[in-house]
Design goal:
Structural class: alpha+beta
């Protein structure tokens, strides 16, 4: 087997092992980063929802207080305003789903399902817990969620949720007296939850991995080509030339040209030694002939 072939076999084996290790490590890191990026974006969206809730309570509700006595206006409800705003946002990011899940909601649409109720219960058990993230199985595959507690921190919220008699009559006519009451100050009544399929961060990780591995593969290929060129120029060609001269000398062709040893590397030193050995051999043959 030729030297270049052996060299390439060893080099390609090492590079393939390194390529596989780099691919596995990169995918793990990229998937983690993509997951965190999705959660960070969900956090920004959550802050937007919180800002809309605050704006509704402080700016919108006071302006519509008089009309609320005659007709219930959902636009005055913070959860309604945040949900509607997020629905507009989903036109750009349809993969994100927002819900203000509540254990005892006024609107049945906001009632927490089993897994949402577990999150709310965790917030109720740990009042110092400010947010939760995790994954869950769905019929469409794994889903990533980001949640924050809905805690009654202002007495104005109890105007509609303490006892039925304190709530606007227009609201009670629309939703009845059975749901959405009995809330207390500082109580965690629900959770803001943003969900996104795990397929989203996985897809981003895979796209980044393809780009990275394609670039790395190209760099390794160029490296192999350059190393082969260097091997041929620096090692293989000089050694082949010396072997050809030695072959001619062994057949008695003493007039063969010397090996051109250029530079000060190991091959040049070997070439110079080869030329000296050849000249010594020529002198020895001439002495024997004489």
């Amino acid at each position: 087997m030729q030297l270049a072939t052996k060299f390439n076999l060893v080099l390609i084996t090492v590079l393939l092992i390194g390529f596989a290790i780099a691919g596995f490590s990169s995918y793990t890191i990229l998937r983690k980063n993509a997951r965190q990026e999705v959660l960070d974006r969900a956090g920004i969206m959550m802050e937007s929802a919180l800002a809309m809730r605050s704006y509704t309570v402080s700016e919108v509700r006071p302006l519509l207080a008089a009309q609320m006595k005659r007709q219930f206006l959902p636009q005055t409800v913070p959860a309604y305003a945040a949900t509607k705003t997020f629905d507009k946002l989903r036109r750009v990011h349809p993969e994100y789903v927002y819900k203000e899940a509540t254990l005892n909601p006024t609107n049945p649409r906001d009632r927490a399902v089993e897994w949402e109720a577990d999150i709310i219960q965790a917030f109720r058990n740990q009042l110092d817990l400010k947010e939760m993230t995790g994954e869950r199985e769905t019929v469409h595959g794994r889903s990533l969620y980001f949640a924050r507690p809905i805690q009654i921190k202002q007495g104005t919220c109890l105007e509609c949720h303490s006892v039925p008699s304190a709530a606007p009559e227009s609201m009670r006519k629309l939703y009845g007296d059975a749901n959405g009451f009995g809330w207390a100050l500082n109580e965690v009544v629900g959770a803001q939850i943003i969900s996104v399929p795990m397929a989203v961060p996985i897809k981003r990780a895979e796209e980044a991995l393809v780009t990275f591995m394609g670039t790395l593969g190209g760099v390794l290929l160029v490296t192999v080509v350059i190393l082969n060129i260097l091997l041929r120029v620096v090692v293989t060609n000089p050694v082949t030339q010396m072997a050809a001269i030695a072959e001619e000398v062994s057949k008695g062709k003493l007039d063969s040209p010397d090996f051109q040893a250029l530079g000060k590397n190991e091959i040049a030193v070997l070439g110079a030694s080869f030329n000296r050995m050849r000249r010594s051999l020529e002198k020895a043959i001439k002495m024997l002939e004489e």
